[in-house]
Amino acid sequence: MKFAMNLVAASAVFLCSGVAFAQSGETVKIAFIDPLSGPFANVGQNQLKSWQYVAERFSGAKNVAGVNFTVTGFDNKGSPQESLNSLKAAIDQGFRYVTQGNGSGAALAISDAVSKHNARNPGKEVVYLNYAAVDPSLTNDKCDYWHFRLDADTTMKMEALTTFMKDQPKVKSVYLLNQNYSHGQQVAKYFKEGVALKRPDIKIAGEDLHPIGQVKDFAPYVAKIKQSGADTIVTGNWGADLTLFVKALNDAGLKLPMYTYYAQVTGTPTALSAGGDSEVYVISYGHANHTGEINAMTTEFKKKFNDDYYSLSTYNGIQLMSAAIAKAKSSDPVKVAAALEGLSVKSFAGEVQMRKSDHQLQQSMFVTKWQKVDKQNPYSVENTGYTFAPVKQMDPYVASTPTSCQMKRPT
């Protein structure tokens, strides 16, 4: 009898501890704030679908917290000011989690606004998941407790890229073409610093910064590159700015090896395929030809949307959120933010960890190369018959860079 009573008591304790997991079955709403109109709309629309696809796939019993995720799009038109308007609208509608990635100017505005909102509105805190804005300052001098970056920042990508390029002896003269805002400026800055240390023999043949999202014809830039005698191009351009640049290269018949951050992003693969075979590299935390679960997801996404699933940070974002909610036994942003610090989860490319000191995700990096599909790399990017095949994988420590972040944590 006593044993039975103890068993009942133990069961009650277990059930009560289960009540602490009251988040099971509840819905966690995420506001997606990025361009859904304007020159970068095709990228934003793809990434909204990516967030929604992953949220739906890993809702309910398919995540460790048992919560349901929903993602709602807010069009910031690529503008920092519109981002703030979208953020306010999302908060007014009860969103406690926001995500954004296209544009570091918008990212800095959102991070600052979230920090101020949280300080002024205890009990209504918001967490900001940055899935693609790579300005290093977001996890250095402008780091904030409520900001968590899922992508690798510019210094990490450039550390990996220059580590790869130092072993490419045919690279002797580089032309830098980048968008004239923080990201593009930093790609140029950190490339020059990286090669000065690793390959001081590499010459900078020329450098241009152009207005973001405003250039319709890149022919004058291509002419300058041709005239410079450069044997290689390095660019951090993305979206329409990279697609139009590739078209201008095709029109001029200029085929130079090109090292990029975002050649896999919507529109650019189709432009590359129009030029046939070319030597184009991407530095990223993932690629289109992974095996396992992420491969099945990439295939399913293509069938569902006739589009490519390339923002794999959305996968890590939902996995980290699920694990943090389970760890916190709550979906309260204050508790989830604390649980995210230092959290490790299994990803599609090994373990990733949200570094506590600056909230910068530590993860493997890949260099991939544009080529025709084959048995080892069968995924046809944008149905072109071409793909980005991995040529080098680097463990997280290779690309990890130090931080100057002095994190101020809420008391």
Detailed description of the structure:
40% of the residues lie in helices and 20% in strands. It is an alpha/beta fold. The strands form 3 sheets. Strands 7-6-8-9-10-14-15 form a 7-stranded mixed sheet, sandwiched between helices. Strands 2-1-3-4-5 form a 5-stranded parallel sheet, with helices on both faces. The protein has a 3-stranded antiparallel sheet with strand order 11-12-13, with helices on one face. The protein starts with a helix and ends in a 12-residue tail after the last helix.
Topology:
Elements: H1 2-19, E1 27-34, H2 41-57, E2 68-75, H3 80-92, E3 97-100, H4 104-120, E4 127-130, E5 147-149, H5 154-165, E6 173-179, H6 182-198, E7 203-210, H7 219-228, E8 232-235, H8 240-252, E9 258-260, H9 268-274, E10 280-284, H10 293-305, H11 313-328, H12 333-340, E11 344-347, E12 350-354, E13 361-362, E14 365-372, E15 386-394, H13 396-399
Parallel strand pairs: 1-2, 1-3, 3-4, 4-5, 6-7, 6-8, 8-9, 9-10
Antiparallel strand pairs: 10-14, 11-12, 12-13, 14-15
Properties at a glance:
411 residues; alpha/beta; seven-stranded mixed β-sheet; 13 helices; 40% helix; globular; disordered N terminus
